[in-house]
Amino acid sequence: MQVSSIQPVFKLELNHKVIPRIVTIAKYDGTHPCLTASAGYDKIIIHHPHGGVVSGRAQRSQAHGEISELSLSQAVVALAAGSLRPDTNRDMLLIGSPSQILAYDVHDNTDLFFKDAPDGVNVIAVGTFGKHSEPLAFVGGNSSVQGLSWQGTELFWNVVSGKLLVGSDDFYIRVLKNNQFIMEIAETGPIVCLSPVTEVRFSYGLANGTIGIYEEGIRLWRVKSKQNALALQWSGEMLACCWNNGRVDWRDGATGRVLRRVQMRSGAAAMLLADYRSMGIPDLVCVSDKGEEEDRLAITELFNKKQALMIELQHYESNAASGNINMDILERPPTAMPTNTKLQVAVNASLENVSYSYNSMLD
């Protein structure tokens, strides 16, 4: 099987090491995307390539003019961002420490809330859920899920309504509805990443290097690698998987077969789907643990065009096999005569020659 390779459409150096999995992309001014990542125990970096200068607590980096640094007094274990406040479309930055969570307005340099998390903080996500139409901050702890409003009010603990997909260290993937487990799927290792595909389909990754796809509780396929999956993203009909060694592969969503593959120069820290170039289309942004940032999803359009041309060629070959097209025409080698060749024609004025030629044409 031949696996195609692709090149990034842009690449840049952040000049900071990045902690794997603690990365997000947000629009703090409501317009320009900024990559935000943990660059150490208590330091956060914000990359603002589109001119949206970050001020306040964040200080301009001496190593990179497009990066600002935000120093905290606690370890950073989780990052997320989203439009929490109902009066603005700007994203708020959510910072998780081992026992607390901070909601910070980067643009206005103000704290929305600072709240204790007795059950710990493992992961944070922003979105709507169940009967709550306003965006909430979901905090996944050691054994519970907490939902917080933009003011830090706890609207629920675990689940009140709707459905929630949860992966845990006890090897189970669980679906909860109305505070009850409606589905439990036993796996072969701790769940490290989940990514939705449709309402009934999702992809998953385990700590032992296994990735796969489930649909309505039935496993469609799974594969196992010596590396660990860092992130999964659904793109078209393909599943993009970023591995901890810096390899990114695109797999057929129906079979898991590898279609394309690339290798970063160092280990991976994150893979996110975002319109980072502000072109109106989402890009697959890959970040290495050494601070290299690459954008690869735009190549998908070229791959699709190639596939369309291959299908068109197959149609020509099918028509030729049925006799509709003369294959001699398709296989005829091009002439060796250059396109700029000049021809010189000499005309003999002999009446005998003219008469002979005319008579030959009549014959």
Automatic annotation (TrEMBL):
Domain Ciliary BBSome complex subunit 2 middle region: 162-251
SUPFAM superfamilies named in the record: WD40 repeat-like
InterPro entries: Bardet-Biedl_syndrome_2_prot, BBS2_Mid, BBS2_N, WD40/YVTN_repeat-like_dom_sf, WD40_repeat_dom_sf
Domain Ciliary BBSome complex subunit 2 N-terminal residue range list: 24-127
Swiss-Prot/TrEMBL GO biological process terms: non-motile cilium assembly
GO cellular component: BBSome; ciliary basal body; membrane; motile cilium; neuron projection
Name of the protein this chain belongs to: Uncharacterized protein
